[in-house]
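Why TRAP transporter substrate-binding protein? Reviewers of the renewal asked for a concrete example.
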Amino acid sequence: MLEFNIMRAHAARLSMSTIAGILLLCTGQANAETLRLAHASSSKSLIQEAVAMFADKLAGETKGGLTVQIFPDGQLGDEGPIADGVGSGSIDIGLGGVADAIDPKLNVVTLPFLFSDANAAHTFLDGPVGKKVFDTGADNGFKMLGALDSGFRQFATVSKSIATPEDIKGLKLRTPPNPVILATIEQLGALPQSIPFGEVYTSLQSHVVDGVEPEIRDFADQKWYESAKFLSVSNYIWTPNFWFMNKERFDALSPENQAAVTKAVEETTIWYRGKLDEVYAQVIEDLKSKGVTVTTVDTTPFRAMVDPVYAKFGAEWGDDLVSSVRSAAAGK
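Here is what the prediction returned.
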């Protein structure tokens, strides 16, 4: 009886997706399938909570017929390699902010000062122009499932707060390999440095770079604040964690399982969006308690500098696309 109680207590702690996996082993369900999902965010992050919820919802919706194996912490590579893996089919589902392997035009949603706040970004994503943007990628072998906020990006530096364009001029700032971010940082007068995510901590510590332009949850999770003690909140670029699947793999699912994936994504996205304000407020308080100086930037002079970035990518992706996205993002 004691052994039975211990086993029952242990089972109660298992997630639905894990239980579903055990049941599949026991019952030998003929149509059971497992999807490999990878992301580069921390295993303690809100992204990880979200994909774990997605896995549970999917297992429940399909009665254990479709389960998800999650690889967090960049176990299967950084964001670029994850997108490449989904494209080749070695990974079924990926999340990340690097969209070039899917379609470079997806980066249109990361143009500088495009969204006034997170609600504006969500309204755009759920609207007709956002849905049209996200239809891209299908020709390159990707099924766009949606996007979870990677959030607004800020400025964090080792030696000083950034209040004016003069403060950022000449600083070496680590950036991800996003062409819009690279072009924007250059336009603002700083020197972008494409350093892999996993090397940022030591690059700050050794002063290889003067700072970063992070989303604040990554800034906190990766402990970059231990070297970069000045966080200047500018919301200068909003970035998504694109959520995508290998299109052939999606198309090979039964119609019922395709619908279950879509439903689980939609429900998880709603939950995730509802957590953001609470999470960001807590992260800011935690950073302040760790000695980080947090200031808010007057973005007016920075906004006045970025029109050449819009012109650059309008020429590359089409002025009509950039203009329609800019208008829709402003609620016009």
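The radius of gyration is 21 Å. This is the kind of structural detail the renewal will allow us to pursue systematically.
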